[in-house]
Design brief:
Layout: H1 3-15, H2 20-34, H3 41-54, E1 63-65, E2 68-70, E3 74-76, E4 97-103, E5 116-119, E6 124-127, H4 136-149, E7 156-160, H5 171-182, E8 188-192, H6 207-220, E9 227-231, H7 237-249, E10 254-257, E11 285-288, H8 292-306, E12 312-315, H9 321-330, E13 334-337, H10 339-344, H11 348-362, H12 374-384
Parallel strand pairs: 3-4, 3-13, 4-7, 7-8, 8-9, 9-10, 10-12, 12-13
Antiparallel strand pairs: 1-2, 5-6, 6-11
Helix pairs in contact: 4-5, 5-6, 7-8, 8-9, 9-11
Length: about 375
């Protein structure tokens, strides 16, 4: 029996009604402690137990993408480990890669609390965190120290955002300043211009403003680190097509689809327990199940626009192997989870990986790479016939 799903989560969510952000902070503190295996022998023992329980290794799940080796396609999305304090732990929890941040050049407290809410009826979360983090310099110092003490077993990405105090017209320099501090410490980088929780940030998805950011970053990118752009699910198709064009122009490694949504239609939640207000009256982005179908549509559109030539990391509403498979056959080479992991618990990653292996067998495939874009390939072959 899954103790988390059937005992711990109901206790925390429904009985104790633990504050979402407080619970997140305690979890990160625990993972930070587990990272200190050189100091705490008990942490090393716990890590071994976690590996045995939560990891699943199978060569059919491996991929080499943009020069990096991924042991499996399931990654941790940005937002959970904002300051990179648990970078060494994520491989022990079964993840094939992890994305740190969002980090900004300037340290910042984020938006006023409360700013993170659960919507259990919708299997969703609503957040307006506002890029709360200790800044790029602090993350760089922490990762540099960790690099001396250990080596990451999985690719580690770093998600870059704009500092709130930086004017929009100076955004490109702000992203560049963070990248300069961190470029030797991450395996790939993400330009986050799609969070709804920093005023004006989404306007940076406009082709002219985004091109200025990408131009500066690629000029600085002498070691050719893979750079991605993360887009919003609420963009019109023409705007997404413009970003695809920019991705080709600036030779980006790929696109992450998608960030949280500002849409509120179709929600079952009428009143949020923690605030007493409706979701419509609370600012912020929604993640989880309500985002699932739209993010998959965006993935499919990008795949079709690029004929599968630009790697896509799919994120939004993944709770089960079927959810993951849907995004992969739509065109995602990799997927990321966050809200689903909160609801389903630490065993979720292993369950998804085991389920993907079953789905590969059912479809007569020998590797996860063969499944990427499979739905579109089948549709195209039918049209040709």
């Amino acid at each position: 029996m899954d103790i988390y799903k059937f005992a711990i989560r109901p206790l925390l969510f429904n009985v104790v009604k633990t504050d979402s952000e407080w619970l997140h902070q305690q979890t990160i503190r625990s993972f930070s402690w587990l990272s200190q295996t050189g100091v705490h022998q008990r942490a090393s023992w716990v890590n071994q137990r976690l590996k045995q329980s939560l990891c699943l290794y199978d060569s059919r799940l491996k991929q080499n993408l943009f020069g990096l080796n991924f042991p499996n396609p399931v990654g941790l999305a940005a937002g959970f480990d904002k300051d990179g304090v648990a970078a060494d732990i994520w491989s022990n929890l079964g993840f094939g890669f992890a994305e740190l941040g969002t980090v900004t050049f300037q340290a910042q407290p984020g938006n006023p609390r409360p700013r993170l809410f659960r919507l259990p009826l919708d299997k969703a979360a609503l957040n307006r965190m506002g890029f709360n983090n200790r800044g790029a310099a602090a993350m760089a110092a922490r990762l540099a120290q960790g690099k001396q003490e250990s080596t990451h077993l999985i690719p580690i990405g770093i998600n870059l955002g704009k500092s709130k105090v930086t004017p929009l017209e100076a955004a490109a320099q702000d992203y560049l300043d963070s990248f300069r501090l961190l470029k030797d410490l991450g395996d790939y980088f993400v330009v986050n211009v799609s969070s709804p929780n920093t005023p004006g940030l989404r306007s940076l998805q406009d082709a002219s403003m985004l091109s200025a950011i990408l131009d500066l970053l690629q000029q600085e990118n002498s070691t050719q680190k893979p750079i991605f752009v993360k887009i919003a699910p609420d963009l019109e198709w023409v705007a997404i097509a413009d970003i695809v064009t920019l991705a080709k122009t600036y030779q980006l490694a790929g696109i992450i689809a998608t960030n949280t949504t500002i849409r509120r239609d179709g929600l079952k939640t009428q009143v949020i327990d923690q605030s007493g207000k409706s979701p419509q009256d609370e600012a912020g982005g929604i993640s989880g199940e309500p985002l699932r179908d739209r993010s998959t549509e965006v993935i499919r559109f990008i795949w079709q626009q690029t004929q599968g030539q630009i790697p896509i990391i799919g994120v939004g509403g993944i709770f089960s192997p079927e959810d993951a498979w849907e995004k992969i056959i739509a065109g995602a080479s990799l997927i990321q989870v966050y809200t689903g992991w909160i609801y389903e618990g630490p065993l979720m990653v292993r369950r998804i990986l085991a389920g993907l292996l079953v789905l590969l067998e059912q479809n007569g495939l020998t590797s996860i790479n063969e499944a990427v874009g499979l739905q579109t390939k089948i549709q195209n072959s039918k049209l040709e016939f």
